[in-house]
Amino acid sequence: MLKKSFRSFVAVLIASACAAAPVAWPSAAIGQQAMPGGDLAQVSRHLKAMQSLRASFTQTDRNGQTLTGTLTLKQPGKIRFEYQKDAQLLIVSDGRALTMIDYQVRQVQRWPIRNSPLGALLDPNRDLTRYGKILPTGDPNVVSVEVRDPKRPEYGVITLILTRTPSAPGGLSLVGWVALDSQNKRTTIRLSGQQYNGAVADSAFAWTDPRGKGPRR
Questions:
Q1: Does any domain span residue 198?
Q2: Residue 216 lies in a domain
Q3: Is residue 112 part of a domain?
Q4: Which residue range forms the structural domain that includes residue 66?
Q5: What is the CATH number of the domain that holds 164?
Q6: Domain count along the chain
Q7: Cis ω for the linkage preceding 76 (within 30 of 0)
Q8: Beta strands in the chain (DSSP E)
Q9: pLDDT digits (tens, 9 = 90+) for 21-48
Q10: CA 52, CA 56: separation in Å to the nearest integer?
Q11: CA atoms in the 13 A half-sphere facing the CB of 72
Q12: By CB distance 3.0 to 4.6 Å, which of 9, 16, 28, 72 could disulfide with 61?
């Protein structure tokens, strides 16, 4: 059974924030000074060109506890975190809200996407020049972008980590992100086995309501 503290951590991830090969993960990215350069425009091109994404993910909290699963993303606005079976958790976005379905306790919670920096991934038209800044990584092949809404600090911060990959959309590949909520609780998502722009049916974002209300989309 998944620990209660970890279930709370999953809820914090989506309420506040929410690699195919080893990379120099910039563990100290949050809080560093921005570097000059044109990488924001390239990140924007990547997000606009990323019509869909499938990948495996590993999610780690600040205490080192981990969950694994499969991520499916489809623009605009749809995402699904299919967690390992013993977690009995599912997170789905229908383009308007993020929904966490906890099958263990038969509970459903929803948060508006606009309240989350995760919107940086789910809205390819978001202007990163207003909300994002490039952070130093110490590796020319790694791009780190911190996204926050200065007018809404309670929404937290998300730092996207990408690697320069010529074959990927826009020449970049998303390898994960770090989420920091307003209480400085940090979570990390690392991706592997990324597959871009394959066909993804809208039915991939349907879910079964544990409260006995049938399938939902």
A1: no
A2: no
A3: yes
A4: 4-18+20-193
A5: 2.50.20.10
A6: 1
A7: yes
A8: 52-61, 66-74, 78-83, 89-94, 97-102, 107-112, 132-135, 142-147, 157-164, 172-180, 186-196, 207-209, 214-216
A9: 333 454 444 334 444 445 888 888 898 8
A10: 14
A11: 17
A12: 9
